[in-house]
Amino acid sequence: MFEEVKACRRLHQRKELNDNLLPVGKGTTALTVLDEDPDEFIPNMNYKVGSARRKQLYDKRMAKALHSSLPSAGEECYIYVMEVDLVQAVSGAANPRNRRFVNPLDTEFCFGFLSNTKIPKVCSIMENFNASFN
Questions:
Q1: Distance (Å, whole) CA 110 – CA 41
Q2: Which terms does the record give in the GO molecular function aspect (predicted)?
Q3: 14/80 Cα distance (integer angstroms)
Q4: CA–CA gap between residue 78 and residue 1 (Å, rounded)
Q5: How far is CA 79 from CA 15, 19, 59, 102, 112, in A?
Q6: What is the DSSP letter of 88?
Q7: Contacts of 83 (CB under 8 A, 6+ apart)
Q8: What DSSP line would sit under 14-66, residue for residue?
Q9: How far apart are alpha carbons 84 and 105 in whole angstroms?
Q10: How far apart are alpha carbons 112 and 4 in whole angstroms?
Q11: Which of 20, 31, 11, 27 lies closest to 71, judged by CA?
Q12: What is the DSSP letter of 114?
């Protein structure tokens, strides 16, 4: 755990993380901010409408385990790193502009977050979820 804290400290000194240890930049998204704009929903449509930047193909939801889990300065916290594998190409309505998607496992980046609470283990049915695509 000490190495993770050192990495976060280094990123904060470089101004890549803010005082809440969230990434700094145009794409910064706080866990507490969810777009629940009801005027974007139209019944019987397979996607939400809006500008190209705001088009949502699904409702955003956050796991209950992450509610009120944003760590504070000086507070002990947990770091979670997730490996995301692209197992099937995105096409059709999910990719209206036919953009090319790169498998995240083929890049040097990863997704992670800090939490002041331990998140529950993934249920066993999800551990083998990837096997159903192979």
A1: 32
A2: RNA binding; RNA endonuclease activity producing 5'-phosphomonoesters, hydrolytic mechanism
A3: 21
A4: 8
A5: 19, 16, 26, 25, 7
A6: S
A7: 104, 105, 110
A8: TTSB-TTSPBPSTT---TT-----GGG--TT-SS--S-TTT--SS-----GGG
A9: 7
A10: 11
A11: 20
A12: E
- Vertex 110, ends 65 and 84: CA angle to 5°? 70
**Interatomic CA distance for residues 78 and 117, integer angstroms:** 7
- C-alpha 123/C-alpha 130 separation (Å) is 13
Q: pLDDT tens digits for 4-53?
A: 888 888 888 988 888 888 887 655 544 334 444 444 444 555 554 445 55
Segment 69-79 mean pLDDT: 90
Query: In terms of DSSP bridges, do strands 111-115 and 78-82 run parallel, antiparallel, or are they unpaired?
Result: antiparallel
DSSP 8-class letter at 107: S
Measure the N-to-C terminal CA separation of the chain; round to a whole number of Å. 34
Tokens at residue 124, please? 């066993």
Sequence letter at residue 102: V
From 5, 33, 25, 26, select the one nearest 114 (Cα to Cα). 5
Q: Please give the model's pTM, rounded to 2 decimal places.
A: 0.45
Distance CA 71, CA 112 (A): 14
- Which is more confident, 76 or 97? 76
